[in-house]
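Dear colleagues,

As part of the handover before I leave the project, I'm documenting each prediction I ran so the next person doesn't have to rerun anything. This entry is a single chain, and its sequence is reproduced below.
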Amino acid sequence: MKSMNDIDGDIKSRRMIPCLREGHRVRAIATLSAVGLAVYAFVLGTSTRMEPHAVWAMFAFVGYCGCAGMLLRRRWSIGAIAAVSAGFCVVLPGVALIVRGLSQHEVGIVRDGAIRALASASPYVTDPAVVDDVFPYFPLMSVFGIPGAAFGENPLGDPRISFTLFFAVVTWVSLRRLVDTKIAARAEMLMIACPLVAIPIATGGVDLPVAALAGLAVITLWTGEYRLNAIVVGVGCAIKFTFWPLAAMMIVVQVRRGRRAEIRRWAAVVAAIVGAAVLPAVLVDPRGFARSAIEFPLGLSAIESPAGASILGGALAEKGFLGYAGIVTALLASAVAITWIALAKRHLGLTDILLLAAAGYTILFLVSPVSRAGYFVLPFVLGVLGVVAQVAGSRAAEVVHPDGASLAEKGTRS
């Protein structure tokens, strides 16, 4: 007969088998993902005509292959694998491109905008003649070009450094509200090693601040930090028009929470920040602001955008009036659907809000006549934060409580 120790050992072994199987499954998926990303980097490097992307692909191919090998050997921790991927996909190509002065054109546009803003309080050219004269952002974006205005052509002034540091810090603040330090560090390194984030960091980066602020805006709204949320939303809206749909979603969620009276104070803070950032430039050069920040992004300018046509929206735009009517209908329908879900869903948690926002931006960028891959860093970051929140158990928190209490506070009250 088996002793009690043998029986206990058999029971523990049986309990460990599902865990081991799950671990093998996760490692297999991770290995296949690394191999797939290596193939993507190889194809991009051999097919692209853009030199910055080709340089990134060369380093990324080595990094993804190294990660796949580390996963197969099963001797390396997740932290070590994340560090290798971030090093080869972000740090090394980023440094190489900055030193060589290779970038997408928007890096120079942000730097030139900062030079003009420091000289005249407006980053805009009154009558832009070519695409490099256009500053298609709101004035606060020029802040990221101030180091470039100060250091000139010195690599230390490259706006990509400012974009990356801002993105890393703000994303870290968001992740730390969800998970502990160790998991947050691994999650952020793995996030920035993905092509949708790594390529903008290395080659451009203008969408990174908006993506980071969007994630923090949703999380601070969920935790009930309304003052901080208003500041984050205001800064995001003063950087790029892309942030404005998320600001509308913030209002919808607050209406669900029963904060109708407090929304006025929240909106006043947001409006004050946007006004303080935008009005000086508008008063100094209203024509330049209209031509660069309004007409150009809306496709009303005679200057052609360097962004290509989106697969869906571009095809619809070629159909003329009916195509544009379809685009507007699709955008309105998605906005109504997201609003209805946000108001009607019985249990609306942090993961739900993040994924709803990610879905909304994905539809927006797919349906817009002009789009590019870099835009999708915004829904990607929101989606990753949604997955982290789900894994961390954040979905158990309800968003409908009018007191806006955090998860920890709700736990102590119940």
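Residues 4-47 form the longest helix (44 residues). The radius of gyration is 23 Å.

All the best with the project,
I.
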